[in-house]
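Narrative summary of target 7.
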Amino acid sequence: MLVACGFAAGFAMPPTSAVLRSMWPDLLRDRPQLLQAAYALDSVSIEVIFVLGPLLTAAIAALASPATALIISAASVIAGTLAFTALPPSRAIQPDREASRAGVLGALRSPGVRSLVLTSLPAGIGIGICEVALPAFSHASGAAELAGLLLAVWSAGSAVGGLVYGALSHRPPLGRVHLAVAGLLPLSLLPMAAAPSPAVMAVLVIPAGMFIAPLLATRNELIGWVAPPGARTEAYTWPVTAFVGGIAIGSAMAGGIVEASGWRPAFLVATAAAGIGAIIAVACRNTLHPAGAPAG
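Modeled conformation, tokenized:
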């Protein structure tokens, strides 16, 4: 029953994130130089949610009950959605006059959107494996109580990386930054496989997280380049769906890897998965250019 309810809840989750990301170019039409910071802040906000959400859930469940935590969660989603849809920019959204041009495939008819989906899936798998491998490491080290702290520090590293990326005043071309962070992500995950102690792991998770938010931010910005007419909002949903789906797949894979071989191989597989994402990003780089601009 819990699995069925969880699926229904996930299916019914309002797509406010995708809608907001599709609105940034219009909201910042007169200040396009702020787009980079906007998408970075968006990614950092997600990381803050990932840190605070579980902590608040644990606190509410401990002080009241798990059912109370679920009720507060539902109320938060409803209140947030109502507040978002009541804002003037949300109320001003009009149906895209070119929606009929999207075709049967919708946003996926764009090669650039397909490329971002293909690169997001293995990256998500790598992250999902790490989310299970870190608690497995803590348990194997005799410090199971530190698992939540390591995950929080990891997310904090991602938030720091997003803030640094958003604050860059003279950023290289977006396509190059995207390829750079895609390539640095697997390299940053690899050292965690050699961590000798929780103290060292607490240091290693910081650089391991620093490229996650910039990766998501650059992909969200790239979507605005490659989204086909009439399917821009839909286009923003596909990479995040692939990324979150990858996290779910990675989490499921990690359990078997840890049980069969331990936490070190799990981090190695996570590195390999993120590396595959980087290879795909390089191979498909010519599909990620603004409409009307030459490839390359």
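Residues 292-296 have pLDDT under 50 and may be disordered.
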